Amino acid sequence: MSLCDGVAISLETSAASSESQRQSAGPVVAVGVAAALVLVALWWSMRGRDSRLVVYCAHDAVFAEEILRDFERRTGIPLDIRFDTEATKSLGLVNLIRRERNHPRCDVFWNNELLGTVELAQEGLLEPYQGSGWSRLPERFRDPDGYWVGFGARLRVWIVNTTALPADEEAILTAFDLETGRGAIAMPMFGTTLTHYAALHRAWGLDRLRDWHREVRRRGLREVAGNAHVKDLVASGHCDFGWTDTDDVFVALDAHAPVDLLPIRIDGKTLAIPNTAAIVRGTRQRAAAERLIDFLASAETELALARSRARQIPLGAVDEARLPTEVRRLQTWAEDSLDLRELVADRRAVLTWLRAEYVP
Fold first, then answer.
1. I want to staple 147 with a disulfide (CB 3.0 to 4.6 A). Which of 48, 121, 194, 328 is the partner?
2. Is residue 48 over pLDDT 70?
3. Contact by Cβ (8 Å): 240, 161
4. Which of 236, 237, 213, 246 is closest to 330 using CA atoms?
């Protein structure tokens, strides 16, 4: 073999080796580029998520979302909203905040009742803030240290199908005793029905409440997933009466259903259940969270809720001339309401009992 032939063979071998290395490196490079792109996408996604204020909202989306989107438009602060389900109203999100205590995702909790929020404050899962919204609300509807503030209340009421019964308290109570199977309530382990049971526990004690509960179930009282289901049963005539909240009754009235409402009274007191707003401990969006708390607890938001289909009751001072007539009627009833802050221990006792009652 000549020197030239040897050089040629050597060059061909070297070229083949280089081509083989390039072919081997190709998939590795491609995988590396793909991984880098995924990391960039994740970083961008997390960056976008971190810029949003995360709101857990137990109030019905049909009423709450418009309020929250209005805040977005006015402030330019983007929101990431998580709503609760009808079946686990308020309790589901309260428990989620508990589970996330070491790695909180939520910045602001808009609860549609009070007692779960009070428990979160007692467990050290909320941060205090005494802003303009907190300052304008009456003392009984706010935490003294600013851990939560109440606004826009609903009343617990009887909903009555007026083709079956007159909207008269004596007639309803008689029907409840004699025709219990024609009535409906939401499952009492959740939402405002749980608060209702806590008030009964305070008035009656556990033994009487447990006996009463078992007796009305034996007599056929219907238990359904939520207050909206109670409203549907009564509005359609499948039930004659039930327990629900004022916002659900107004949905039926706006649909021209044959229903009316009367306040439920326990030892002469009504149940006015406020929304509550609170900052969750560990928020990384403190300034934005404070702005949302002040917005929710403002006179403007209370008026918006009063004038919405929910007809919620303002708890602070507002322009009375701008209130719908039906909300003024509710205000009169709400003036006689219980101080729900006293019911935290009762709620815990009721929930412990009901879990044993319903969960084998």
1. 121
2. no
3. yes
4. 246
Q: DSSP class of residue 125?
A: -
The C-alpha atoms of residue 13 and residue 329 are separated, in whole angstroms, by 96
Q: Torsions phi, psi of 339, nearest 5?
A: -85, 105
How many whole angstroms separate alpha carbon 239 and alpha carbon 42?
52
Lowest mean pLDDT among 58-67, 81-90, 136-145: 81-90
CATH architecture of 154-263: 3-Layer(aba) Sandwich (3.40)
**230 within 8 A of 186, measured Cβ to Cβ:** yes
| Residue 204 identity (one-letter amino acid) | W
Residue of 354, 26, 54 lying closest to 190 (CA atoms)? 354
The architecture of the domain spanning 51-153+273-328 is 3-Layer(aba) Sandwich (3.40)
For tokens 């081997």, the residue is: 24
Largest CA distance in the chain: 121
Question: Distances in Å between the alpha carbon of 63 and those of 67, 69, 215, 307, 311?
Answer: 8, 11, 36, 11, 10
Whether the model clears a pTM of 0.90, i.e. scores above it, the answer is: no
- Rounded to the nearest angstrom, the gap between the alpha carbon of residue 301 and the centroid of all alpha carbons in its chain is 17
Can you give the residue ranges of every domain in the chain? 51-153+273-328, 154-263
